[in-house]
Amino acid sequence: MSEHDFEPVRGLPGVLPEGETILWQGEPRWFDLATEAFHIRAVAGYFAAMLTWRTVDAVMHGQAASTAVLSALSVTPLAVAALGLLAGMAWLNSKTTVYTITNKRVVMRFGAAVSKAINIPFGIIETAALKAGPNGAGDLALTLKAPNRLALLHIWPHARPWRMAAPQPTLRALPNASAAAAVLASAMQAEVPIALMRTPDVVGAAPPRALTPSTVALA
Q1: Which residues contact 138 (CB under 8 A, 6 or more apart)?
Q2: The model scores a pTM over 0.85
Q3: Residue 33 pLDDT class (50, 70, 90 cuts)
Protein backbone atom coordinates (compact mmCIF):
# COMPACT_ATOMS: atom_id res chain seq x y z
CA MET A 1 0.00 0.00 0.00
CA SER A 2 1.26 3.50 -0.83
CA GLU A 3 0.04 7.05 -0.27
CA HIS A 4 -1.24 7.02 -3.85
CA ASP A 5 -3.82 4.40 -2.85
CA PHE A 6 -5.68 7.15 -0.99
CA GLU A 7 -5.98 9.55 -3.93
CA PRO A 8 -9.60 10.63 -4.49
CA VAL A 9 -8.94 10.33 -8.23
CA ARG A 10 -5.95 8.43 -9.62
CA GLY A 11 -3.15 10.85 -10.47
CA LEU A 12 -4.92 13.93 -9.12
CA PRO A 13 -4.55 15.80 -5.81
CA GLY A 14 -8.30 16.12 -5.34
CA VAL A 15 -11.73 15.54 -6.74
CA LEU A 16 -12.30 17.19 -10.11
CA PRO A 17 -14.27 20.44 -9.96
CA GLU A 18 -17.65 20.55 -11.65
CA GLY A 19 -17.26 20.89 -15.40
CA GLU A 20 -13.79 19.35 -15.53
CA THR A 21 -13.24 15.89 -17.02
CA ILE A 22 -10.25 13.63 -17.60
CA LEU A 23 -9.44 13.30 -21.29
CA TRP A 24 -6.22 11.26 -21.11
CA GLN A 25 -3.89 9.62 -18.59
CA GLY A 26 -0.55 7.93 -19.11
CA GLU A 27 2.71 6.92 -17.48
CA PRO A 28 6.33 6.96 -18.63
CA ARG A 29 7.70 3.65 -19.89
CA TRP A 30 10.49 2.71 -17.48
CA PHE A 31 13.03 1.52 -20.03
CA ASP A 32 12.68 4.66 -22.14
CA LEU A 33 12.94 6.74 -18.97
CA ALA A 34 16.11 4.86 -18.02
CA THR A 35 17.73 5.57 -21.38
CA GLU A 36 16.48 9.12 -21.98
CA ALA A 37 16.39 10.62 -18.47
CA PHE A 38 18.86 8.51 -16.49
CA HIS A 39 21.24 7.88 -19.43
CA ILE A 40 21.76 4.23 -18.59
CA ARG A 41 23.24 3.49 -22.02
CA ALA A 42 25.86 6.21 -21.63
CA VAL A 43 26.83 4.87 -18.21
CA ALA A 44 27.04 1.33 -19.60
CA GLY A 45 29.23 2.64 -22.41
CA TYR A 46 31.49 4.36 -19.89
CA PHE A 47 32.06 1.15 -17.95
CA ALA A 48 32.61 -0.81 -21.17
CA ALA A 49 35.23 1.73 -22.25
CA MET A 50 36.88 1.56 -18.82
CA LEU A 51 37.03 -2.23 -18.95
CA THR A 52 38.52 -2.16 -22.44
CA TRP A 53 41.09 0.45 -21.52
CA ARG A 54 42.18 -1.43 -18.39
CA THR A 55 42.56 -4.63 -20.39
CA VAL A 56 44.57 -3.01 -23.20
CA ASP A 57 46.75 -1.09 -20.74
CA ALA A 58 47.53 -4.24 -18.76
CA VAL A 59 48.47 -6.19 -21.92
CA MET A 60 50.71 -3.33 -23.10
CA HIS A 61 52.51 -3.51 -19.76
CA GLY A 62 53.28 -7.18 -20.18
CA GLN A 63 50.38 -9.00 -18.56
CA ALA A 64 48.90 -12.06 -20.20
CA ALA A 65 45.60 -11.36 -21.94
CA SER A 66 43.63 -13.70 -19.66
CA THR A 67 45.12 -12.10 -16.55
CA ALA A 68 44.46 -8.62 -17.90
CA VAL A 69 40.81 -9.43 -18.59
CA LEU A 70 40.31 -10.89 -15.12
CA SER A 71 41.91 -7.82 -13.59
CA ALA A 72 39.73 -5.49 -15.64
CA LEU A 73 36.61 -7.37 -14.62
CA SER A 74 37.14 -6.16 -11.07
CA VAL A 75 35.06 -3.09 -12.03
CA THR A 76 32.10 -5.31 -12.92
CA PRO A 77 30.43 -5.21 -9.46
CA LEU A 78 30.60 -1.41 -9.50
CA ALA A 79 29.14 -1.31 -13.01
CA VAL A 80 26.32 -3.68 -12.10
CA ALA A 81 25.52 -1.68 -8.98
CA ALA A 82 25.46 1.64 -10.86
CA LEU A 83 23.34 0.33 -13.73
CA GLY A 84 21.02 -1.43 -11.29
CA LEU A 85 20.57 1.79 -9.33
CA LEU A 86 19.71 3.77 -12.46
CA ALA A 87 17.31 1.09 -13.70
CA GLY A 88 15.68 0.94 -10.27
CA MET A 89 15.24 4.70 -10.14
CA ALA A 90 13.67 4.69 -13.62
CA TRP A 91 11.33 1.84 -12.69
CA LEU A 92 10.29 3.52 -9.44
CA ASN A 93 9.68 6.83 -11.21
CA SER A 94 7.60 5.05 -13.83
CA LYS A 95 5.49 3.26 -11.24
CA THR A 96 4.82 6.41 -9.19
CA THR A 97 4.11 8.80 -12.06
CA VAL A 98 0.78 9.59 -13.68
CA TYR A 99 0.33 12.30 -16.30
CA THR A 100 -3.21 13.62 -16.73
CA ILE A 101 -4.77 15.89 -19.33
CA THR A 102 -8.19 17.27 -18.50
CA ASN A 103 -10.25 19.78 -20.42
CA LYS A 104 -8.74 22.53 -18.21
CA ARG A 105 -5.17 21.61 -17.29
CA VAL A 106 -2.22 19.22 -17.32
CA VAL A 107 -1.40 17.47 -14.04
CA MET A 108 1.90 15.73 -13.34
CA ARG A 109 1.83 13.47 -10.27
CA PHE A 110 5.15 11.87 -9.39
CA GLY A 111 7.45 11.01 -6.52
CA ALA A 112 8.04 7.89 -4.45
CA ALA A 113 9.33 9.14 -1.09
CA VAL A 114 7.64 12.54 -1.42
CA SER A 115 4.66 12.72 -3.76
CA LYS A 116 4.12 15.88 -5.78
CA ALA A 117 1.25 17.01 -7.98
CA ILE A 118 2.04 19.83 -10.41
CA ASN A 119 -1.03 21.58 -11.82
CA ILE A 120 -0.48 23.42 -15.11
CA PRO A 121 -3.60 25.27 -16.28
CA PHE A 122 -3.94 25.71 -20.04
CA GLY A 123 -3.90 29.48 -19.59
CA ILE A 124 -0.21 29.53 -18.56
CA ILE A 125 1.01 27.21 -21.33
CA GLU A 126 2.59 29.14 -24.21
CA THR A 127 3.52 26.21 -26.47
CA ALA A 128 3.92 22.45 -26.35
CA ALA A 129 6.68 20.59 -28.21
CA LEU A 130 6.34 17.01 -29.36
CA LYS A 131 9.43 14.86 -29.80
CA ALA A 132 8.50 11.40 -31.01
CA GLY A 133 10.32 8.54 -32.66
CA PRO A 134 9.12 6.42 -35.58
CA ASN A 135 7.07 4.23 -33.23
CA GLY A 136 5.26 7.21 -31.69
CA ALA A 137 7.04 7.02 -28.33
CA GLY A 138 8.59 10.20 -26.96
CA ASP A 139 8.18 13.37 -24.91
CA LEU A 140 5.69 16.24 -24.77
CA ALA A 141 7.34 19.37 -23.36
CA LEU A 142 5.42 22.45 -22.17
CA THR A 143 6.72 26.02 -22.34
CA LEU A 144 5.16 28.23 -19.68
CA LYS A 145 4.22 31.86 -20.22
CA ALA A 146 6.34 34.37 -18.30
CA PRO A 147 6.59 34.95 -15.42
CA ASN A 148 5.38 31.42 -14.60
CA ARG A 149 8.27 29.11 -13.83
CA LEU A 150 9.00 25.76 -12.20
CA ALA A 151 12.33 24.96 -10.56
CA LEU A 152 14.25 22.17 -12.30
CA LEU A 153 14.90 20.35 -9.04
CA HIS A 154 11.17 20.31 -8.29
CA ILE A 155 10.21 18.54 -11.52
CA TRP A 156 13.27 16.48 -12.57
CA PRO A 157 13.31 13.99 -14.27
CA HIS A 158 10.02 15.24 -15.71
CA ALA A 159 11.69 18.11 -17.54
CA ARG A 160 12.93 18.67 -21.06
CA PRO A 161 16.67 17.87 -21.32
CA TRP A 162 19.18 20.72 -21.52
CA ARG A 163 16.67 23.46 -20.66
CA MET A 164 18.21 24.47 -17.32
CA ALA A 165 17.80 28.24 -17.55
CA ALA A 166 14.10 27.94 -18.35
CA PRO A 167 12.94 24.46 -17.28
CA GLN A 168 10.08 22.98 -19.27
CA PRO A 169 7.81 20.47 -17.52
CA THR A 170 7.64 17.42 -19.76
CA LEU A 171 5.56 14.30 -20.08
CA ARG A 172 8.52 11.92 -20.49
CA ALA A 173 8.92 8.56 -22.20
CA LEU A 174 5.30 8.22 -23.28
CA PRO A 175 4.58 4.99 -25.19
CA ASN A 176 2.29 6.99 -27.50
CA ALA A 177 3.33 10.63 -27.31
CA SER A 178 1.51 11.53 -30.52
CA ALA A 179 -1.83 10.50 -29.01
CA ALA A 180 -1.19 12.65 -25.93
CA ALA A 181 -0.29 15.60 -28.18
CA ALA A 182 -3.50 15.18 -30.15
CA VAL A 183 -5.59 15.20 -26.98
CA LEU A 184 -3.78 18.26 -25.65
CA ALA A 185 -4.17 20.11 -28.95
CA SER A 186 -7.92 19.48 -29.05
CA ALA A 187 -8.43 20.40 -25.41
CA MET A 188 -6.41 23.60 -25.55
CA GLN A 189 -7.90 24.80 -28.80
CA ALA A 190 -11.30 24.40 -27.22
CA GLU A 191 -10.18 26.32 -24.12
CA VAL A 192 -7.54 28.88 -25.22
CA PRO A 193 -5.57 29.74 -28.41
CA ILE A 194 -2.44 27.57 -28.77
CA ALA A 195 0.27 26.69 -31.24
CA LEU A 196 1.66 23.20 -30.72
CA MET A 197 5.01 23.07 -32.47
CA ARG A 198 6.78 19.92 -33.63
CA THR A 199 10.46 20.02 -32.64
CA PRO A 200 13.00 19.83 -35.47
CA ASP A 201 14.80 16.87 -33.89
CA VAL A 202 11.86 14.52 -34.36
CA VAL A 203 13.07 11.45 -36.20
CA GLY A 204 12.02 11.74 -39.81
CA ALA A 205 9.98 14.89 -39.17
CA ALA A 206 9.45 17.82 -41.47
CA PRO A 207 10.52 21.34 -40.39
CA PRO A 208 8.63 22.80 -37.40
CA ARG A 209 4.96 23.42 -38.08
CA ALA A 210 1.80 24.06 -36.10
CA LEU A 211 0.08 20.95 -34.82
CA THR A 212 -3.69 20.73 -34.79
CA PRO A 213 -5.92 17.77 -34.01
CA SER A 214 -6.13 17.07 -37.73
CA THR A 215 -2.36 17.16 -38.29
CA VAL A 216 -1.20 15.14 -35.29
CA ALA A 217 -0.42 11.61 -36.45
CA LEU A 218 -1.73 9.03 -34.01
CA ALA A 219 0.65 6.12 -33.50
Answers
A1: 130, 131, 132, 173, 174, 177, 178, 202
A2: no
A3: very high
